[in-house]
Write a structure and sequence with these properties.
627 residues; Heat Shock Protein 90; Ribosomal Protein S5, domain 2; Rossmann fold; nine-stranded mixed β-sheet; five-stranded mixed β-sheet; 18 helices; elongated
């Protein structure tokens, strides 16, 4: 028997581990199962290169609860340790066995998937245990060893009669951590952190139905047998080559990742790179709503199949945070608790790679089956538009596949759209005007006026459209976007020939004064414009600039923040060539007020602005007129 003190530089290392090393005590199970996996993978590598003269077999890791004895066991069939190795690797805190192993076999062990990097993972056991035992037998022909520590720097190390290869960790669970003696709690943790570990993990048994015998009668009762309950999938889809997977395999894996998600994803992107860094994974595009929902808990980060976090900020570009899936890389640097990313050049390279891979996939989908891509556009556009705004490298490639649908459900890329409308929608100053609607139903009357002129109207209805068109205008000379209700159509696309007014300048000023007597100046700016005599007499428009600045402010427009508090302002455009304009000039004052009020309400209806008490009064007034 030997006794001694663990070689640590801080006397109170265990309280420090318990309080500060890990953000959540439940991490202990992940670390101990990871260590067991390391030990098994190391043995696999050594037997593969002929350095370990033992049979590798079909090893598994077992997690057992002894609720009565208040103990938790983690048992592996890996390479085990000699007494000297226990002294070296356990008693010298932060001396990582995995690091030494990788250094020694760095050429041949490159792809062995060794998980441990820190040497502190084992000591996470003391976050939940008042005493920890290690019973271990090396694959080498040496006696087994039994190490015990009660959470102080004191330990004992004695021989043991264990004859089978591998290591058993026994945690004597502390009174404040008895939740980790509950089967459902341990099961949940294993499924959370170790669901895709590369070595099978046994946790208890489960009932499995025996096949019904061919000669069984109608009164046959199904018989069940106890089988090992393997709680993980050691070979998840992302560890395989895309050529070895079918579409159904990808769909099946999606359901495994998100069992409560009932809609299938639209498509997937398989990530697989081994230079200049190692990264594998699968990203899925689910159906998106119109909201920019940054659901940062949908993509899972793994390191050699060990779950690390569902916060992938920094690794996955921000706009792809709305996707779902898995990223696995041994080259993503983590701090000692594996819980947070460290600043590192590799992280930016990985982010750039993912951006490029997603861009290439979208372009391929667009080129291979444009019709299918167009049908999915409304379900994915919010991600792509957000990517154009936030990721310069994505924006550079987006022109090849980002679409601009028209109200007739034709889909154009920006270059195609410009080519399609340039002959008719270029104004007298040589500027190409793209007309758009953010709500086809609400802006129907304005769309109808544009269609009568032969103009195309595209549908841009995402909440970030104001930001997007601002960027597109800045990057495309002589291109401007105008919402169809920003002004009357002849002002939106001004041509050389202008419509003559039936009213003189004096009559127009008189008409303006009449109308201003009956509309609130705080909300409306009255404009008298000469339009076609058949055009609507009163039109409400919202100036493009002010509306756009307000929208950008409401969705986080940085320097536009002040615009969000501006009151709603509208231009009330009066058609000087309409019959109503002539009637107003001739009418008595009380009749003028009634006509202006009725016409303004009709204009407000076309903008969806007449509501509540005003709408009730309008309906009542209209019915009285037709009695």
């Amino acid at each position: 028997m030997s006794t001694g003190k663990i070689n640590v530089s801080v006397e109170n290392i265990f309280p420090l581990i318990k309080k500060f090393l890990y953000s959540d005590h439940e991490i202990f199970l992940r670390e101990l199962v990871s260590n067991a996996t390391d030990a098994t993978l190391k043995l696999k590598h050594l037997t593969g290169i002929g350095e370990a003269k033992v049979e590798y077999g079909n090893p598994f890791i077992e997690v057992k609860i002894d609720k009565e004895g208040k103990k938790l066991h983690i048992i592996d069939q890996g390479l085990g340790m000699t007494a000297d190795e226990v002294e070296k690797y356990i008693n010298q805190v932060a001396f990582s066995g995995a690091e030494e192993f990788l250094e020694k076999y760095k050429d041949s062990a490159k792809d062995t998937g060794i998980i441990g990097h820190f040497g502190l993972g084992f000591y996470s056991a003391f976050m939940v245990a008042e005493k920890v035992e290690i019973i271990t037998k090396s694959f080498k022909d040496e006696p087994a060893a039994h190490w015990t520590c009660d959470g102080s720097p004191e330990f004992t190390l004695v021989p043991h009669d264990k004859t089978t290869r591998g290591t058993e960790i026994i945690l004597h669970i502390a009174e404040d951590s008895t939740e980790f003696l509950e089967e459902h709690r341990i099961g949940d943790l294993l499924r959370k952190y170790n669901k895709f570990m590369p070595i099978p993990i046994k946790f208890g048994t489960r009932k499995e139905a025996l096949p019904k015998p061919e000669d069984a009668g109608e009164d046959y009762k199904t018989e069940f047998v106890d089988v090992d309950n393997i709680i993980n999938n050691p070979e998840p889809a992302w560890t395989k080559q895309p050529t070895d997977l079918t579409d159904e395999d990808y769909q099946s894996f999606y359901r495994e990742l998100y069992p409560m998600q009932f809609e299938d994803p639209l498509f997937h992107i398989h990530l697989n790179v081994d230079y200049p860094f190692n990264l594998t994974g699968i990203l899925y595009f689910p159906k998106m709503s119109q909201e920019v929902q940054m659901q940062k808990d949908k993509i899972q980060l793994y390191q050699n199949q060990v779950f690390v976090t569902d916060n992938v900020e920094g690794i996955v570009p921000e706009f792809l945070g709305m996707l779902r899936g898995v990223i696995d890389s041994p080259d993503i640097p983590l701090n000692v608790s594996r819980s947070y990313l460290q600043a590192d050049g590799n992280v930016k390279k990985i982010s750039n790679y993912i951006t490029r891979k997603v861009s290439d996939k979208l372009k391929a989908l667009f080129n291979e089956n444009r019709t299918d891509f167009e049908q999915k556009w409304n379900d994915i556009k919010i991600v792509l538009e957000y990517g154009m705004l936030t990721e310069p490298k994505f924006y550079e490639k987006a022109g090849d596949f980002v679409l601009y649908p028209t109200i007739e459900d034709k889909f154009y890329t920006l270059s195609e759209l410009k080519e399609s409308v340039k002959d008719i929608q270029t104004d007298k100053n040589g500027k190409l005007v793209v007309l758009y609607t953010s709500n086809k139903e609400q802006q129907h009357s304005y769309i109808d006026i544009a269609k009568e002129k032969g103009y195309q109207v595209v549908v841009l209805d995402s909440p970030i459209v104001s930001h997007l068109i601002q960027k597109l205008e800045a990057d495309n000379e002589n291109l401007t976007f105008a919402r169809v209700d920003a002004d009357h159509i002849d002002k939106l696309i001004q041509k050389e020939d202008s419509t003559l007014s039936k009213l003189s300048d004096e009559e127009k000023e008189q008409l303006k004064g009449v109308i201003e007597n009956f509309v609130p100046k705080a909300n409306y700016t009255v404009q008298i414009e000469a339009m076609d005599s058949n055009s609507t007499p009163f039109i409400l428009t919202q100036p493009e600039f002010m509306r756009r600045m307000k929208e950008m402010s409401q969705t986080g427009g940085g320097g536009m923040m002040g615009f969000g508090n501006f009151p709603e302002m509208y231009n009330l455009v009066i058609n000087s060539n309409s019959d109503l304009a002539a009637t107003l000039l001739k009418a008595e004052a009380n009749a003028q007020e009634e006509l202006v009020k009725q016409a303004l309400d009709l204009a407000k209806i076309s903008q969806g602005l007449l509501k509540g008490e005003e709408l009730t009064a309008f309906v009542k007034r209209s019915f009285e007129r037709i009695k």
